[in-house]
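ok, trying the design again with the full structure, not the truncated one.
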């Protein structure tokens, strides 16, 4: 019995290193992004995300949140700035990679999002995104973690209606995201 209890406590401690040490947490993060938009090339952007997470006593945790980013690039051929805003809701499961470091944790993450895009030429459309990434948690104390990571996201948006009355297809594109934020945990674990 004593061996089983010791093994359970060691397992929980190992999992806690790669996830929040609390069962519930709120995370806010700043985003730096790059979108690969076909012939337009890469356009950079910035934004933020906020998510709530649930971390059971396992190597998995589950998040639900909102995201917002704005992107712009100067287009010399048109002598104008192209601006695109993406906002949406997402789900993000994570898997904690077992490590022995007491203050650092590593995770792998997936993401599925519903998106809405708007732009400066008066059109908008809905779409979706799917992606994967990884991150590192630095445990600052029992409730607060510094969370940094990156992801590759494939995004697809619906056709847009132009101001001229015509329609245009918005081709699928790839996005790259780097994030840095704080994770604040709450609640008490029951063993």
């Amino acid at each position: 019995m004593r061996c089983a209890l010791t093994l359970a406590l060691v397992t929980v401690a190992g999992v806690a290193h790669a996830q929040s040490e609390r069962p519930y947490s709120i995370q806010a993060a700043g985003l730096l992004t790059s979108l690969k938009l076909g012939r337009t090339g890469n356009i950079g952007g910035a934004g933020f995300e906020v998510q709530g997470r649930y971390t059971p006593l396992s190597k998995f945790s589950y998040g639900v949140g909102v995201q917002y980013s704005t992107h712009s690039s100067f287009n010399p051929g048109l002598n104008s700035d192209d601006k695109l805003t993406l906002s949406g809701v997402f789900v993000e499961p994570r898997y904690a990679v077992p490590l022995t470091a007491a203050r650092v944790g590593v995770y792998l993450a997936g993401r599925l999002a519903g998106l809405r895009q708007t732009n400066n030429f008066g059109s908008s459309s809905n779409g979706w995104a799917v992606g994967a990434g990884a991150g590192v948690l630095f445990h600052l104390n029992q409730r607060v973690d510094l969370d940094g990571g990156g992801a590759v996201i494939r995004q697809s948006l619906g056709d847009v209606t132009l101001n001229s009355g015509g329609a245009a297809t918005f081709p699928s594109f790839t996005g790259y995201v780097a994030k840095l934020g704080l994770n604040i945990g709450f609640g008490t674990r029951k063993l």
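Keeping the full-length input from now on. The chain has one domain: 2-186.
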